[in-house]
């Protein structure tokens, strides 16, 4: 279901809020902040020839192990011994040529695959040996609920499969987790066994997602030839370095360190939603991000048209 009452845009106007109190609460091992009722108004415009469809439900069943990272026994966390260096991948000429195409605004929102990082983006792990204990970024629950109703969403973390599973169990409700396209972890980064067990700089190369047959079937228009690619995929991550191969498919948010820092920090996800609502109206997300990259406090807000 796509709510139909608002668009995202650069604006100084703040979204409506209902005050709930500023004290954090502990829920199932997760610290949640509930200082305001976070509301958004997703974009909905009328006429277009672009194919579009509601985000379908893609539950991850036991007979679909390819959608979750392997849960085979591996070291609990990468070893802290001296790490090998992995050169940062560079964008291809074809990628840069595509991203340098002029932006074009559509009349209706298009299908988007949103890839979410965990630690530093949605949450802060207080103890890496205990993945189920973390602090969620302010408004994470509301943010995720909105994203799952509007986009195709998957998780991709550099943590181990066991840790990713533990974090997702705490972060998402059972129903929400069933809506995820996939849960990817460290084993999906193309690391050698040595690199996997070391604390190395890793990179999330989106070709791995685009080349996955299992992920491809999650496109709402897959049966009609729809596919995920450079024009409709977004990585939300606090590390720009991890997005080296596809820098213009990346929305960079400040690293969340488990504490509140400023008013802009508390409204990060509201600003991301405003940016996403604008970008869903673009023919190619990479050309839009190249031209107008996301920045906190740059005026992007989820706008309520009712005033």
Set out the fold topology.
Elements: E1 8-10, E2 25-27, E3 30-32, H1 93-99, E4 113-116, E5 123-125, E6 134-136, H2 140-150, E7 152-156, H3 161-171, H4 174-179, E8 183-184, H5 193-196, H6 207-210, H7 213-216, E9 233-237, E10 250-252, H8 263-266, H9 268-279, H10 285-291, E11 300-302
Parallel strand pairs: 3-6, 4-7, 4-9, 7-8, 9-10
Antiparallel strand pairs: 1-11, 2-3, 5-6
The CATH topology corresponds to: Rossmann fold
Radius of gyration: 19 Å
CATH class: Alpha Beta
Largest sheet: 5 strands, parallel
Strands, total number: 11
**Residues in helices, as a percent range:** 10-25%
Summed up, the helix count is 10
Assign the CATH superfamily.
Answer: HAD superfamily/HAD-like
Instruction: Provide the domain count.
Output: 1
Mean pLDDT: 79
CATH architectural arrangement: 3-Layer(aba) Sandwich
Q: List segments where confidence is low: pLDDT < 50 over at least 5 consecutive residues.
A: 1-7, 12-23, 31-63
N- and C-termini, Cα separation? 24 Å
Q: Outline, from the CA principal axes?
A: globular
Element order: H for helix, E for strand: EEEHEEEHEHHEHHHEEHHHE
Kindly name the structural category.
Answer: alpha/beta
Strand content: 5-15%
Spatial arrangement of strands, main beta sheet: 8-7-4-9-10
Brief rundown of the structure:
This protein is of the alpha/beta class.
